[in-house]
Design a protein that fits this description.
Layout: E1 18-22, E2 46-48, E3 52-54, E4 65-69, E5 74-78, E6 87-95, E7 100-105, E8 111-118, E9 121-128, E10 131-134, E11 144-152, E12 158-163, E13 167-172, E14 181-184, E15 195-204, H1 210-220
Antiparallel strand pairs: 1-15, 2-5, 3-4, 4-15, 5-14, 6-11, 6-15, 7-8, 7-14, 8-9, 9-10, 11-12, 12-13
Length: 224
Amino acid sequence: MPPLDYRFVWNNYDHPALVAAFDMSTLTPGGLLKNLARTGAVYDATINGAPTYVPPLIRAKRTKCMDFGGVNEYLSLANPLNGLATLSMVCWINVDTLGRILFSRASAAGTYLFIQSAGGGSIFRFSMSAVECDSKNAIVLGRTYMVCATRDGTTSLLQKTYVDGPFHKQISTGANPVDANAFIGQYWDGSIRYDGRIDNIMFWNIPLTQEQNWSLMKSSIPRM
């Protein structure tokens, strides 16, 4: 078991490497989600449609999370990854339908996280500049996972995937596309909307390691 780094916990919104974080709950005033604006950028997300609110996917969390119906529900926001050579995205998911998008931006050659049908189940996949890096094992419908995608701009532009803490796969990628807008729960062209639950999605300006992923996972399920 990797060592724990308690700077990396699911609710540490003061971490200096955290660019934006969304708790996916009903507590934020005005219908907007949690915003971190240390550099002056605003990443508040606008809720489109009418997602329902259900018990959290994170056991240690008291507030609810968003349940997307796969048709009308999605979030729109300024792109928190714009201009980052090095980055990470983390979220907790519980999927009802295969072949759906968690996060997207730009165009077909942009950046997105999605659940792809594979081997009788589904694979968590991270795509940047049309280069795809997937998880090694199938993700089962109706089960909660913590998924992470990283890109390290200092080491041959490696992008990696992690599921429930452990490292899964890595692959070399191209340049980070530049764009202004992003979406949680739909593809960039308005299609392939997410069907299932998303809890606490976070965007970082560092490539999280396996140890840091494990710390996030452990902090969300303290009985592990």
